[in-house]
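In the laboratory, one determines a bound structure by crystallizing the protein with its ligand and collecting diffraction data. In a computational setting the workflow is compressed into a single prediction: the sequence and the ligand go in, and a structural description comes out. We illustrate the idea with flavin-adenine dinucleotide.
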Amino acid sequence: MQKSVIVIGSGFSGLSAASFMAKAGWKVIVIEKNSTPGGRAKQLKQDGFTFDMGPSWYWMPDVFDRFFKQFDKKTADYYQLVRLDPSYRVYWENDFSDIPASYDQLKKLFESIEPGSSKQLDKYLQEAAYKYNVGVGKLVYKPGLSLAEFLDWETIKGIFRLDVFTSIQRHVHQYFKNDKLRRLMEFPVLFLGALPSNTPALYSLMNYADIKGGTWYPNGGMYSVVKGMYQLALELGVTFSFDETVREIVVQNSEVINVVSDQSEYRPDALISSADYHFTETILQPSASRSYPESYWNKRVMAPSCLLYYIGLNKKLHNVKHHSLFFDVPFDQHADEIYSTPKWPTHPLFYVSVNSVSDPSVAPPGCDTIVFLIPVAAGLTGDTEELKREYFDIILQRMENRTGQNIKNSIVFYKSYSVSDFVNDYNSYKGNAYGLANTLRQTAILRPSCRSKKVKNLFYSGQSTVPGPGVPPALISGEVTAREVLKSFQ
Ligand SMILES: Cc1cc2nc3c(=O)[nH]c(=O)nc-3n(C[C@H](O)[C@H](O)[C@H](O)COP(=O)(O)OP(=O)(O)OC[C@H]3O[C@@H](n4cnc5c(N)ncnc54)[C@H](O)[C@@H]3O)c2cc1C
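The predicted complex, in structure-token form:
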């Protein structure tokens, strides 16, 4: 008889897990509390403006290609990609750098900042390429359930080259002296939700992804990827139920016997939850079947939350790039206010994305669509509209000063989004934006397990289990978890 699985959540990891389960011949129902697929990659369309509310950087195109290939499809069957050039702009205290897509041009830029650094970059990236090939090519597809998975000869042989025992900050500092270059090389690990001083140097593979893999843009925005994956899942026969919230997981004799939603009840053979891990564990399940006590979660380092602004302008800006990072104030204080002494940032760093620079379809003619993002500590309270306006004025002023134009007077659409919205919309623990950070102590087998430790047919996917935060890891997570389900039913 055909086996059945319920997948809670239709974010990237839920879509991925659902597709792999359907490919294996299972009956798959995805239950999603929100009205559209995509999870944190929600799309906002209003007054002619189209915003990606969550992810905006498309890195590691090979991971997406690999995903579609497993269903005998190509990425191009679902959306079109363009490579951005420059990849992004970084504003420093007094000037800025445009990071070119061409590696030769990038080496010239490095050399102009620190003589001799282009050769160092070559060496650094040789190591990073090795890590990318072993890490993304192989290790991230392991379920992280036991150390034994990593004990094959090739991995043991290369363990020191993989740099899992040193921080990326140390690693970068060994290669580059100039502060700008150091910050440039440390920036990609911020995607992993942790500080460079607390992230294994294994993740210099992110520099390889950035520099060699490139920054891409799916036409129509990141939501085109959601639409593509949703379409694929439908083609594979997955059923979706939107605006339906799972309220309870009923466990008997170490097995899920009933999944109760606000509309129905289900008795699947297996359950994959791609909803926030902490929420599934502590709110949906009885305490006896939880894998981790509340005290475990209290000690975890969550990735930051975000203060976001979705802005529509009635004009086009000049002198702006698709992605810009404002590293124009010192990093340390803001980092401290995210991780060590959580508080609203005193001098925030921020990120700006203007998709309409590359894609006129996301704004009305002659207009621009802008997203501002300030990373803030998970768990902060008091995100009132008044506070959000204060921060908006600060960063807007900085952007106006640095790009030499008035923006404020041209705003025709404004929406803010923050910690409490993440909690309300996604049941996010402490309002985290992208899950559990990939720190030294929260990597691979040290992450919350993709299989329940107590309930035989309960599995987890998504940014808080293996391999970690980000869209490519979410795709991988769905695949890894689906494989574990299938293994346990062999
Ligand atoms: C602002 C922001 C910017 C980001 N930028 C980038 C980027 O540029 N590049 C990148 O690669 N990554 C980025 N990320 C990270 C990336 O978006 C996430 O890691 C990834 O989308 C997480 O997918 P997921 O499937 O694990 O979780 P989610 O997307 O959170 O999916 C979980 C789903 O479960 C649903 N759910 C929860 N509870 C229930 C319930 N009780 N019943 C039914 N459904 C439920 C939720 O509604 C949600 O749809 C960003 C994230 C954010 C928030």
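The chain has three domains: 4-79+220-300+431-488, 121-212, 303-426. Keep in mind that any predicted model is a hypothesis to be tested, not a measurement.
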